[in-house]
Amino acid sequence: VSARTSAFWHTARRQLAAVFRKEVRQTIRDKRVMVLLIVAPLVQTVMFGFAVDFDVDRVPTVLVDQDRSDQSRLLARQVLADQTLRHAGDLAGIPEADHALDDGRAAAALVFPPGLARDLASQRPAEVQLLLDGTDPNRAMVASGAVSRYFGEVGERLIRERLEAAGRPAPAQVVLSPRVLYNPRLKTAPYIVPGIAGTLLVIVTTLVTAMGLSREREMGTMEQVLVTPIRPLWLLIGKLLPFLVIGIFDVLLLVAVGSWVFEVPLRGSLLVGATGVLLYLFSTLGVGLLISTLSQNQQQAFLGGFIFMMPAILLSGVMTPIRGMPGWLQVITWLNPVRHFAEVMRGVLMRGAGFGDLWFQLAFLAALGVGVMALAVARFRTQLG
Amino acid sequence: VTGSPLLRSLRRIGAMAGKETIHVRRDPRTLGLALVMPVVMLFLFGYGVSSDLDHIPLAFVDQDQSEASRALALAFDGSREFAVVGRPGPEGVEGLFRGGAAVAALVVPRGYQQDLLLGRKAQVQLMLDGADPVVGNQVLSKADAIARVESQRLAGAAFARLQPPLQVKVWTRYNPEGRSALFMVPGLSAFLLAITAVMLTALAIAGEWERGSMEQLFASPVGRLEIVLGKLLPYLALGLVELLMVVAFGALVFDVPIRGSLPLVMLFGLVFLAGMLGQGLFISVVAKNQLVATQAGALSAMLPSIILSGMIFPIENMPLALQAISRLIPARYLVHALRGILLKGNGLDVLWPDLLAMAVFAVAILGLATARFKRRLA
After folding, report:
1. Which sign does the torsion angle of CA A137, A139, A140, A142 carry?
2. Is B85 in the A-facing interface, judged by CB distances under 8 Å?
3. Would an 8 Å CB–CB cutoff place B148 in contact with chain A?
4. Of A56, A132, A173, A203, which to mutate for an interface test with B (greatest number of B Cβ within 10 Å)?
């Protein structure tokens, strides 16, 4: 029995090695494919790492100062001081400000009504107006938050001064002193780079696998190989392995670039990170294989891959926070390997998280990978058998 | 055969387009995927993309154990923005952050209540997980607002008699409720058109090279440019149908307004599509292999039209070099123009520079692609 088993493994290894060699040669031969699999992810990570900045600032703001007092000028200068708003000119009145919002010259307009300084001096309630372009809700939220916070502080200061002037004790106050862990300046790049890496890996593994195998189906080459003594399973593994290798290589490259260019830290254990990467690639390759068994040609494989990819990217928490989604959608994101991968990478790189912290994500990745791969292999074998 | 040379040429282009339409129709799965995709993505974007958070999980470290500190916990827990998920000791906070159970923690020091009773400033430490800066920034501003309200409550009667001396009145134009669907639909349209036009044409034409059927087509009396134009036309139609679907679905399901003119939307879509089809043609001529064409398309059209177009991330916030690069991406102009037309009711008087930029891109890339195409055949 042992002789038979060892003969089995010997053949298996030889067959696997043969397919692997052939696939690697074929992939390397087309230099453009190699460029696209390695250089493209690199360029995109760098570009998007610089492009994506969640920290909204420099919102173009026009001032409508109808009070023209020292006080209104001081308030305007101070509210613009923290750079959230950028001074984009002065206008005479509200109709002009509306027009500036219409044609996009400004995204906000701050209006100081006439008599503002007089009202403040005589302790009458005063009001400034903020007109916002709401087309980008996030930007509008940030701009109105900054303005409200500033005038809230001014208002409180005024109250304290008036109470003091009236000889009454100032009221108590709760003051928050923030301490930001892991990413003290709340920079976007360390957050987004692991996510972008996960996204690009879907393109490199899922899409390429799905299209490559569909191409073989289109051309009928898969059937030709099956006439040879190679077993379908070894054929399949040999075809997927090169992309696993490229995927691992890309991850290493992107983590290196991330830490070098964007100062992404590496605080946790590499073992946990590597486990996450392998489980993730296993599931993305499985999805690619599954899509290829569902498509008749490359166009369909591309569209199928795309229909998987878009929700996977958008619902991964990379672009927008998962907590901002409705509850039912948050549950659906459990089925999304990109989400778990991004969380594992962020946990390991930034928070120094270990197996104990990330067991949920890793378990889901493993379950997804095994489930999808089993389904795909079963379909693949029935189709060829 | 009768008619002027132009008429005959048009007829041949029509025949090619008819042939390509039959191809598309015979492959209902591709067509179905191309038409289902916009709807699926619109739903995901409409519901899924929102940065405004509720019930942010907060750990409450109470070292004061007083009535005042319990009131502060209640102020946070009772708000829509935060939910107290645990009351660990100070050393337990990081564990909660690492496992993702909490993203922020309030540490109330001993002596908090005493400070308040004495009318002093009572310091409370707000720890937050900076690994996710979007959440982090919101925690900062939302916690600040709640602390201010708590201060006012504590000040009680002294404050109540004073009217707030200075207030801000905020008017939000175009999208007063801040709904993300209104923001996303224009961006999504640009993105879907970019994908359909670039990817499907690149694949369709690269497929002809790959299978060797392009040479067969050249043997027919149809001119080479006519072949290309004929192949592009059905995808132009498909793209316009997708644009209409997205705008219609946006209006019906998410109440996205159409304040400007619908024909203007179609005009912008048409000019944009011409450029994207040119880009698809260019890629296919260079790649002539569907796998390479897909990757090149993803690199040059798909990701830039998500990330550099202003669809999700504002362009003003990018470094200047990337702002310059984004000017070469037609999706940027379409996103801007569609937002202007749909949400603001802008007309050509405001948006002509966008149309001009897209037209320049279309002419340039179609010229380039045709030149490459001719040279490859020569």
Report:
1. positive
2. no
3. yes
4. A173
What 3-state DSSP class applies to A49?
helix
ipTM: 0.77
Contact A176 B144 (CB under 8 A): yes
Best mutation target, B166, B203, B285, B349, to test chain A (most A CBs within 10 A) = B166
- Contacting residues for A313 by C-beta, under 8 A, at least 6 apart: A199, A202, A319, A338
Does the pLDDT of residue A328 top 80, yes or no?
A: yes
Place of tokens 């001009």: B356
Phi, psi of B318 (to 5 degrees): -80, 160
Phi-psi region of B169 (alpha: psi -120 to 50; beta: other; left: phi over 0): beta
Compute φ and ψ for B233, nearest 5 degrees: -55, -50
Smallest CA–CA distance from A32 into chain B, residue: B292
Question: What is the rounded distance in angstroms from the CA atom of residue A57 to the CA atom of residue B316?
Answer: 8
Within 274-303 of A, beta carbons closer than 8 Å to B belong to 295-300, 302-303
Task: For residues A70 and A75, give the distance between their C-alpha atoms in angstroms, rounded to a whole number.
Answer: 9
- Other beta carbons within 10 Å of A207: 25
User: Residue B42 pLDDT > 80, yes or no?
Assistant: no
The residue with greater pLDDT, A146 or A57, is A146
Mark out the alpha helices in chain A (DSSP H runs).
2-29, 31-34, 40-51, 70-80, 94-102, 116-121, 137-165, 189-201, 208-219, 221-227, 232-261, 270-294, 298-314, 327-332, 337-346, 355-384
Bridge pairing between strands A126-133 and B166-173? parallel
- Which CA distances in Å does B242 have to B27, B89, B133, B181? 18, 55, 35, 17
- State the nearest Cα–Cα gap between B112 and chain A, in angstroms: 9
Chain A closest CA to B4's CA: distance in Å?
A: 37
The phi, psi pair for B98, rounded to 5°, reads -65, -40
By the 8 A CB rule, do A223 and A385 touch?
A: no
Give the A:B interface size as CB pairs under 8 Å: 374
Asked if B154 contacts B307 with a C-beta cutoff of 8 angstroms, the reply is no
Asked if A37 is an interface residue toward chain B (Cβ–Cβ < 8 A), one would say yes
Whether B92 contacts B139, CB under 8 Å: no
- Tens of pLDDT, residue by residue over A259-311, are 898 888 888 898 999 999 999 999 999 999 999 999 888 888 888 888 888 88
User: CB of B166 within 8 A of CB of A120?
Assistant: yes
Which string of b and e fits B104-132 if b means at least 16 CB within 10 Å? bbbbbbeebbebbeeeeebbbebbbbbbb
Does A47 contact B at CB distance below 8 Å? Answer: yes
Identity at A75, one-letter amino acid code:
L
Q: Which amino acid is at B371?
A: A
The segment with the largest mean pLDDT, out of A57-61, A336-340, B158-162, B237-241, is A336-340
A261: contact with B, CB 8 A cutoff: no
- Chain B nearest CA to A226, separation (Å): 22
β-sheet with A85-90: strand ranges across: A85-90, A59-65, A108-112, A126-133, B166-173
Contact A129 B169 (CB under 8 A): yes
CA-based nearest residue to A51, from B316, B187, B322: B322
pLDDT (0 to 100) of residue B211? 78
